[in-house]
Design brief:
single chain; alpha/beta; TIM Barrel; RibuloseP-bd_barrel
Length: about 210
């Protein structure tokens, strides 16, 4: 099971995620309490192993801005949390993760309209797009014709509930942000604990902050 740590804003958090075994990290370039500048994200990416995939989160952004930031930061994926159409996603010519806020079963039907690399299924946002830090009803995804190999499950996950989430949804990847934070900041111990819980490691995960 792969793990994505989103909302990275510091070198320490990025390095902790990488060393603990994260497969992907996300930077938020949209309006958010976790927003980061492309320049700072670029600096952080240069510290990381090539094994960690890099995602940039955007909300209803212009295509040229998305492409420029992708090149500057060396993003592997762009994650779209707005009202982007299937045509817009295709026109970017880059690997896309399309986020959908799961309020009801009808939202799931939208997936068939998109030709994306992944779908990130999240709880509806409150102040900002991109989730509320709360879970949604995972059972809405059961008995549905969804491409599990393309599903990234997000929304209120933490080291306690992530096993139930995986068993219920069977996604390709799980995504966490607020679930590995303390007082709104990424907590390196929680990052390590979450990744260890997902990957079922028996050995200790040692995180050295430089």
């Amino acid at each position: 099971m792969r793990v994505k740590i989103c909302g990275i804003t510091t070198e320490d958090a990025a390095i902790a995620a990488s060393r603990s075994g994260a497969d992907m990290i996300g930077f938020v370039f949209a309006e958010s309490s976790r927003r980061i500048s492309p320049e700072k994200a670029k600096e952080i990416v240069q510290l990381l192993s090539d094994n960690v995939k890099i995602t940039g989160v955007f909300v209803n952004e212009k295509a040229e801005v998305i492409r420029d930031i992708k090149e500057m930061v060396s993003l592997d994926y762009v994650q779209l949390h707005g009202d982007e159409s299937p045509e817009f996603c295709k026109s970017l010519g880059v690997p896309v993760i399309k986020a959908l806020a799961i309020r009801e079963k009808s939202v799931i039907e939208k997936m068939s309209q998109y030709n994306c690399d992944y779908f990130l299924l999240d709880s509806p946002g409150v102040q900002y797009r991109g989730g509320s830090g709360k879970t949604f009803d995972w059972h809405l995804l059961q008995d549905r014709d969804i491409p599990n190999e393309k599903i990234i499950l997000a929304g209120g996950l933490n080291e306690i509930n992530v096993h139930d989430a995986i068993r219920t949804v069977r996604p390709a990847m799980v995504d966490v942000s607020s679930g590995v934070e303390t007082n709104g900041k990424k907590d390196v111990k929680k990052i390590a604990a979450f990744i260890k819980a997902v990957k079922g490691r028996e050995k200790d995960v040692r995180v050295h902050i430089t």
